[in-house]
Q: What sequence folds into this?
């Protein structure tokens, strides 16, 4: 894999560097949760209000996922970014709710596409209510998100979030057409995760600077922070599919393997493998090797080739880039929480 660069951001004499994976203490989202607790209550109130409908199935199904144990990381990034730049208004509450609705809608649609039966340790909505209901309630939540954007009144915010919604859809279609394609390369893989995951992280952070009417440079810095955090987050997700379990992941270990997804651990393991191992990966990705024994063999191969280790090293690289991006902002509680959020995202695999 390419050399993993070491970035160090120095601001006001303070060095912000991603802590080593072996460092004592477990990074946590708790500093961010505490930072935005009051704002998040306001966001949750908007979410609860706007997921209501005269059609009982809609709030029932939406509530199953929205209340299903998610960390609200994307709306929290909007709120934390607003704190970082000193915004004292309330417009970001509705926009953070819009971000969460976009995220929830894409999860509902993704679970249908992937045929998933477990999310965050609970049965998926499509398993309980069926695929048609999940797709339609996802559409409802997308519509609610656009209502919130329009009510905000900023064409720039509307452009950012609408473009992001289109980008996420493009990323999902790109992933769909790449499924079971053993020749998928690393560049296309990064394009996919940059669109389907990182784009919403980036937009969630950027819109805080827009509503606060901050300079373009601050918008770009927050966008870069969110984008790199999103890439790191997805890289870790893809790695722990091969090293974790349902209790840790909120989904079954090996789901990506059985769905024939060419994630970075597989791309690296296949590239580094013997002819026999490459033949195994071809059969696995194309759906001919999907048993528990096959998955155990896949885990052994990604371990032997250090594919998971190098995927996590890449995640740390993008995590450091996220930290560097906010180096120009004033030190304080908000910045510390956003740095630790990056450390948390990366440390989930350790």
A:
């Amino acid at each position: 894999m390419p050399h993993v660069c070491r970035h160090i951001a120095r601001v006001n004499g303070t060095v912000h560097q991603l802590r080593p994976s072996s460092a004592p203490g477990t990074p946590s989202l708790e500093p961010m949760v505490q930072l935005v607790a009051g704002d998040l209550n306001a966001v949750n109130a908007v979410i609860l209000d706007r997921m209501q409908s005269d059609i009982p199935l809609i709030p029932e199904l939406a509530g199953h996922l929205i209340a299903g144990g998610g960390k609200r990381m994307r709306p929290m990034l909007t709120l934390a970014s607003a704190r970082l730049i000193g915004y004292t208004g309330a417009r970001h509450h509705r926009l953070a709710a819009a971000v969460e609705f976009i995220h929830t809608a894409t999860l509902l649609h993704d679970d249908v596409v992937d045929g998933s039966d477990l999310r965050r340790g609970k049965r998926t909505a499509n398993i309980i209510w069926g695929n048609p209901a999940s797709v339609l309630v996802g559409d409802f939540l997308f519509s609610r998100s656009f209502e919130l954007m329009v009510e905000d009144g900023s064409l720039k915010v509307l452009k950012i979030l609408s473009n992001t919604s289109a980008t996420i859809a493009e990323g999902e279609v790109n992933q769909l057409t790449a499924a079971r394609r053993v020749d998928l390369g690393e560049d296309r893989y990064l394009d996919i995760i940059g669109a389907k995951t990182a784009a919403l992280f980036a937009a969630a952070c950027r819109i805080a600077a827009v509503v606060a009417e901050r300079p373009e440079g601050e918008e770009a810095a927050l966008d870069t922070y969110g984008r790199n955090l999103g890439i790191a987050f997805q890289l870790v997700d893809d790695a722990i599919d091969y090293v974790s379990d349902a209790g840790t992941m909120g989904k079954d270990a090996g789901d990506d393997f059985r769905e024939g997804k060419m994630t970075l651990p597989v791309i690296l393991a296949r590239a580094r493998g013997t002819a026999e191992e490459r033949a195994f990966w071809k059969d696995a990705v194309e759906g001919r090797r999907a048993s528990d024994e096959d998955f155990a063999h896949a885990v052994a191969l990604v371990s032997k080739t250090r594919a998971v280790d190098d995927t996590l090293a890449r995640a740390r690289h993008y995590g450091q880039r996220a930290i560097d991006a906010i180096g120009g902002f004033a030190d304080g509680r908000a910045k510390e929480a956003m740095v630790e959020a990056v450390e948390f995202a990366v440390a989930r695999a350790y």
Residues 1-13 have pLDDT under 50 and may be disordered.
